[in-house]
């Protein structure tokens, strides 16, 4: 499964990069395949391990902010691995001249 999520503190002002870095650090230290872009962090693995990472990422932000917003989208496809790479490679093949 791939989960794309965004976790953000509320009520701390506009500069939230330091808080978001706390969440991304949790994801990167998990050892699961992951990718971060300007809007979301995607993480790939089994249901329980991915959801545990999301929960811990939210807790990391919540440790310094009284309120946290979470947006989550999941691609649940049993038996598929390396989806973070293969899905992008498929699109790139169609874009190639």
Based on secondary structure, the structural category is alpha+beta
Strand order of the largest sheet: 2-3-1-4
The SSE order reads EHEEHEH
- Shape descriptor reads globular
Strand elements, count: 4
Helix content: 40-55%
Give the count of helical stretches: 3
Binned strand content: 25-35%
- Cα-atom radius of gyration: 15 Å
Spatial gap, N to C terminus: 31 Å
Spans with pLDDT under 50 lasting ≥5 residues? none
The whole-number mean of residue pLDDT values reads 95
Please outline the major beta sheet.
Answer: 4 strands, antiparallel
Short summary:
The chain has 97 residues and is of the alpha+beta class. The protein has helices spanning 17-29, 47-62, 83-95; strands at residues 2-10, 34-36, 41-44, 67-75.
Draw up the topology in text:
Layout: E1 2-10, H1 17-29, E2 34-36, E3 41-44, H2 47-62, E4 67-75, H3 83-95
Antiparallel strand pairs: 1-3, 1-4, 2-3
Helix pairs in contact: 1-2
Quickly list its features.
alpha+beta, 26% strand, UPF0045_domain, MTH1187 family thiamine-binding protein, Thiamine_BP, MTH1187/YkoF-like
Description:
The mean pLDDT is 95. The protein is built from three helices and four strands. It has 97 residues and is of the alpha+beta class. α1 (17-29) runs antiparallel to α2 (47-62). The chain has helices spanning 17-29, 47-62, 83-95; strands at 2-10, 34-36, 41-44, 67-75. The N and C termini lie far apart (31 Å). A four-stranded antiparallel β-sheet has the order 2-3-1-4, covered by helices on one side. Belongs to the UPF0045 family. Residues 3-92 form the Thiamine-binding protein domain.
